[in-house]
Design a protein that fits this description.
CATH class of the largest domain: Alpha Beta
Radius of gyration: 20 Å
Strand content: 15-25%
Strand order of the largest sheet: 4-3-2-7-14-15-1-16
Oligomer: single chain
CATH topology of the largest domain: Rossmann fold
Number of strands: 16
Number of helices: 14
Distance between the termini: 20 Å
Number of domains: 2
Shape: globular
Order of helices and strands: EHEHEHHEEEHEEEHHEHEEHEHEEHHHHE
Structural class: alpha/beta
Length: 373
């Protein structure tokens, strides 16, 4: 049974050791970084840089604690993510959100290059076949996956599996384009965007939220470039008039997340990935959206494990036991004590991604919580 180390978000004494940064330091000491990483070894610290307006990412102070723990054993860490918007713009976003070499104490780089096309094709599974894993993540010998646990438009729940699948895979590939990158997960069935002109209020949120400029308006008519669209669904999500529809197979999407995660993990030797889940500022949407709503449940703490399935199951179990916060989207939807909050927010069968990851051999849903002494 996998061990999942846990530190609560509660601070009940006025001591640094009781703070969350202090407790993260203790967790990393307790788990023993030297058990996973070696002196002079390059280690990717994988995170999400966020977006303009999405400020509830993993705070730089926590990333710095991970970097410091790695440097303490002589490893050579760097902080990284894959391109979600144009590369230089994304680095500006990271810096604006406080992630830079000064704040985290290590270089900050893009794992799939400035253009999001630096990747290698890796076998994934029956649904995806092969997928383009970002070249830096493919080549680096070790990695710490720092995941902000939250809701998600498509996945319902976003944690370490989504961070591996969407964040470890390149935006595109030099020869087969976005259909070999993370778009391969989004575009199962290659659904076509449908626009209902009669319902459209011409608010242009769909155009503004698109990371690829695939939507424009000409003479008050929507123009969609399906050749470059990732089918990520952001446009449909932000359309408050319900004039946009993008068909999707959610079950296959969940399973494809597990397949892509396995492809990323397969490029590492066993025991060379450590997972840290931050159950903090648990907002209803992904960090890639242009805003961050208030949290739907209280901060719970930090989990650390070498088993991605176990840490995801433990995270989900903690969320299931949490109470909805007032004046949040959970409250707006009438969710109450004992409800599955994330399922109530998006109506997605989010646990399927973890069940499929276990079936694919990525780990076990059985776990033992080891609370910080």
């Amino acid at each position: 049974m996998a061990k999942v180390f846990f530190a609560s978000a509660r601070s009940q004494k006025w001591k640094y050791e009781e703070s969350m940064p202090g407790r993260l330091e203790q967790l990393l000491t307790q788990i023993g970084m030297m058990n996973y990483f070696s002196p002079d070894e390059w280690v990717a610290v994988k995170t999400h840089f966020g977006s303009d307006g999405a400020h509830r990412i993993i705070r730089p102070t926590f990333l710095r604690k991970v970097v410091e723990a790695l440097r303490k054993i002589g490893a050579k860490p760097f902080v990284t993510d894959t391109v979600r918007i144009k590369g230089l713009d994304y680095l500006d976003v990271a810096n604006g959100n406080g992630i830079n070499h000064l704040s985290v104490g290590a270089p900050v780089i893009l794992a799939d290059g400035l253009y999001g096309r630096d990747s290698l094709m890796v076998k994934a599974g029956d649904i995806l076949g092969e997928i383009a894993v970002a070249s830096v993540i493919h080549d680096v010998p070790a990695m710490v996956v720092c995941s902000h646990v939250k809701g998600h438009i498509n996945a319902g729940y976003a944690g370490a599996i989504k961070n591996l699948a969407m964040g470890g895979v390149s935006a595109s590939h030099r020869t087969c384009g976005w259909k070999c990158g993370r778009g391969a997960m989004h575009t199962i069935g290659e659904g076509e965007l449908v626009w209902d002109a009669d319902k459209c209020e011409l608010c242009y949120q769909c155009r503004d939220v698109c990371p690829l400029d695939a939507i424009s308006f000409e003479e008050e008519k929507l123009v969609w470039n399906g050749d470059i669209c990732w089918r990520c669904g952001r446009c449909e999500r932000v359309c408050q008039s319900e004039s946009l529809t993008l068909p999707a197979d959610i079950g296959r999407f969940m399973r494809s997340l597990a397949e892509a995660a396995r492809a990323v993990v397969s490029t590492f030797e066993p025991g060379k990935i450590l997972y840290i889940n931050f159950l903090t500022e648990i907002q209803p949407e992904c960090d890639c959206m242009p805003t961050a709503d208030v949290p739907v449940m209280q901060d719970l703490g930090i989990l650390v494990s070498e088993d991605v399935v176990a840490i995801e199951q433990a995270s989900m179990d903690m969320l299931l036991a949490a109470s909805p916060l007032p004046a949040s989207l959970a409250h707006d939807k009438g969710l109450k004590e004992g409800d599955d909050i994330l399922a109530g927010l998006h109506g997605r069968p989010y646990r399927l991604q973890v069940e499929e990851a276990e079936r694919l051999g990525l780990g076990s849903r059985g776990y033992e919580i080891v609370s910080l002494d």
